[in-house]
Design a protein that fits this description.
Blueprint lengths: L1 H8 L6 H9 L21 H6 L4 H77 L3 E6 L4 E5 L26 H14 L3 E9 L2 E12 L8 E8 L1 H53 L3 H28 L2 H5 L2 H16 L2 E6 L6 E2 L1 H22 L3 E8 L3 E8 L27 H9 L3 E7 L3 E9 L5 E2 L7
Parallel strand pairs: 6-8
Antiparallel strand pairs: 1-2, 1-5, 3-4, 4-5, 7-12, 8-9, 9-11, 10-11
């Protein structure tokens, strides 16, 4: 309306009164009062302005004002429009951002649901696999605390679940706990699987187990834990023990046959050769022919060589000293023969003033064990000397065989630190020794160092009537 009044008043000959009349209608007041003449610069009242005529000069002055006013109105409308556009754009961006965030949240929720579903399926598959296995799974931390146990087969040697504050002391034999803790630390430190075999007794029932460890730490911030996978190998060890027993029985049968053959050689061929030597000696003294006498001398010499070979064969098959004089004397005779034949100084030391009268089978096994160890020194040690030490006790016999040979690296010959040598290798030739000692319930250990030598220690218990103490008749 203001814009219309200004345009109407700007017309030549127009007046504000006319402009107001045209815009206000018949209600406009036609009465006008002339403006006072004695107040310069004062703004005339509106009713006076309505009756003042607009000249060309006044219109010329009003045009710039109108232009400024129009420009101001245009700029104001432009700014308002721009502000409206910015506001609408901000509202649109905000709605877009909210919608994007909502869609992202929905997508993440769907992915989380899918991941949870996959995890649930994988957990179900894993549990199915675990339940189908025969192993026992034990989750322990670095301090030895037990957090979970999976015992699907209800193995009587292990609990079915982890109880509060349960530790490795509650699960493993007391003598094995230090090894278990050391194995846990080594597994976490090196990140490698470790394997040990052990026995465990529960309610008087003994079981054999093989266990493997593996580190279980998905993220560096997760607590360090170890999973123990324990397998019951009692049936396998029982079969192995049966094989050992069978092997030892076969050795005893073989030794019995050796003794029988040795006795036959001594009673038949040996006696016949001795009689032949006596007759040849008589014949040699009676003959006067020099040529015949020389032939008889050659026959006597051949006869004596045959007797020597027979005696050595008898000693090799079954040493008479072992059954007549005892274990110490038989080993001393064996040491003398090895020294003579192989150039290695073997010595036998026994601190006992009285030697137990061991049963024949016990003496035979011990003799074969020591002889095998001596053969091992001859074949591998490159030693100059070796010592066999026998320690007789009421509960058992301890045998130590030490040499000053080249030795070997124990780390290259162990299955696991703390275990005996890997005797499956023919390099050491000690498998029969271990089998015989194990059959008797004994212990077998090897210590060696390169360029220093090797020491083998064997302990064999005396069970039942295996030994009868002989009274010491010395003052």
């Amino acid at each position: 309306m203001t814009l219309g009044l200004l345009l109407a008043a700007a017309e030549p000959g127009g007046t504000f009164d006319a402009a107001v009349s045209r815009n206000a209608g018949p209600t406009a007041d036609p009465v006008a009062s002339p403006p006072p003449a004695d107040h310069e610069g004062a703004v005339p009242p509106a009713d006076v302005l309505k009756s003042v005529p607009i000249t060309d000069k006044d219109a010329a002055h009003l045009v710039p004002a109108m232009a400024i006013t129009l420009r101001y109105l245009f700029n104001t409308m432009a700014i308002a429009g721009f502000a409206l556009i910015v506001f609408l754009a901000a509202v649109w961006l905000l709605r877009l951002k909210v919608q994007t965030a909502r869609e992202k949240q929905q997508a993440e929720q769907r992915q989380r649901q899918l991941a949870e579903a996959n995890l649930s399926r994988q957990r179900a598959h894993l549990l199915t696999i675990l339940k189908s296995l025969l192993d026992i799974y034990i989750l322990v931390d670095e301090a030895g605390g037990c957090h979970a146990i999976v015992n699907n087969q209800n193995d009587p040697w292990w609990p079915n679940e982890a109880l509060a504050e349960m530790t490795v002391e509650d699960l493993f034999p007391a003598d094995l706990v230090p090894v278990v803790r050391k194995t846990i630390s080594r597994t976490l430190r090196e990140g490698l699987s470790q394997t040990i075999e052990f026995r465990k007794t529960v309610d008087g029932q003994e079981g054999w187990f093989e266990s493997r460890t593996a580190p279980l730490q998905a993220h560096k911030d997760d607590p360090a834990r170890v999973i123990w996978i324990v397998r019951n190998i009692s049936a396998r060890m029982s079969a192995i023990n049966n094989v050992r027993a069978l092997s030892t029985r076969l050795s005893l049968v073989e030794e019995k046959e050796r003794r029988t053959i040795a006795a036959d050689l001594h009673d038949t061929i040996g006696q016949n050769l001795a009689i032949a030597r006596m007759k040849l000696g008589v014949l040699g003294r009676k003959t006067e022919d020099d040529e015949a006498g020389q032939i008889i001398k050659d026959l006597v010499r051949d006869n004596e060589e045959s007797i020597r070979v027979i005696r050595e064969t008898i000693n090799e098959l079954s040493p008479p000293a072992l059954h007549r004089l005892g274990l110490d004397a038989a080993l001393e005779a064996l040491a003398e023969r090895f020294t003579r034949e192989h150039g290695i100084q073997f010595r036998v030391k026994s601190g006992a003033r009285s030697q137990p009268a061991y049963e024949r089978e016990f003496k035979v096994i011990v003799f074969r064990v020591v002889r095998e160890l001596m053969f091992n020194i001859v074949k591998h040690s490159q030693a100059r000397s070796a010592t066999i030490t026998l320690t007789h006790r009421r509960k058992g016999l301890t045998i130590e065989v030490a040499d000053d040979g080249i030795g070997f690296d124990m780390a290259e010959s162990r299955v696991l630190e703390g275990k005996a040598l890997d005797l499956q290798s023919d390099r050491f030739g000690l498998l029969n020794v271990r089998e015989a000692v194990t059959y008797l319930g004994g212990e077998f250990a090897v210590r060696s160092e390169k360029s220093v030598g090797t020491q083998v220690k064997v302990w064999i218990p005396v069970k039942g009537g295996a030994a009868r103490e002989v009274e010491d008749k010395h003052p």
